Amino acid sequence: MQNRKALYLAACLLLVVGTVGCATIPKSTPPPGCEDSLIYQHIPYPEAIDLAVKLAVFEIAKHEPEYRATIYMAIGAMEELLTHERLTYAHFFWDVTKRVEWLRENVGAELIIVSETLRMFDGVEIPVSDCDRTLLLKHLAQQRMYLGMLGD
Is residue 92 a contact partner of residue 128, using CB atoms and an 8 Å limit? Predict the structure, then answer.
């Protein structure tokens, strides 16, 4: 119960910090070579979402260590999906949304903001851009690194 309370407080803090931070920083602009990035086109503050996801998953893994193996498997599955050249946004984000829903059902509502953000990619049947693929792989590698800090 104490762990769930800590997770809930962390989620609330992320929501407040993310909301305040997003209100005070300009909308992100795509770096050179990322003009075709749907992430930059449709998510006003991708860096804030990136950080929120990393912190939420880290807190879940920290306070609920029995979920770490499942989280590592999910990261591996997403990394593997991103190796497919013809992977569409709809397919990738459908897969991620299903994993987030599993976490939400089994751990709590910490990742609700993420699943809501991902819904905008539902039905987008174009291949994931190289820029977005790189962004997503970078996020997953950092997520894996942060989880590694927790040990086994």
Answer: yes
Nearest-angstrom CA–CA distance, 151 and 103: 20
Best CA proximity match to 137, nearest among 76, 48, 53? 76
The answer to whether the beta carbons of residues 59 and 6 sit under 8 Å apart is: yes
User: Could you tell me the residue ranges of all domains in the chain?
Assistant: 2-148
Name which of 144, 9, 152, 22 is nearest 78 in CA terms.
144
Cα–Cα distance between 119 and 110 in angstroms, integer?
16
* 3-class SS of residue 45: coil
Task: Kindly report, residue by residue over 67-103, the tens digit of the pLDDT.
Answer: 888 888 888 988 999 999 899 988 888 887 777 666 6
- How far is CA 130 from its chain centroid? 18
pLDDT at res. 127: 92
Residue 28 has pLDDT above 80, yes or no: no
Beta carbons within 8 Å of 143's beta carbon, 6+ residues apart: 53, 54, 57, 58, 75
The full DSSP string for 69-123 is HHHHHHHHHHHHHTT-TT-BHHHHHHHHHHHHHHHHHHH-STTHHHHHHHGGGTT
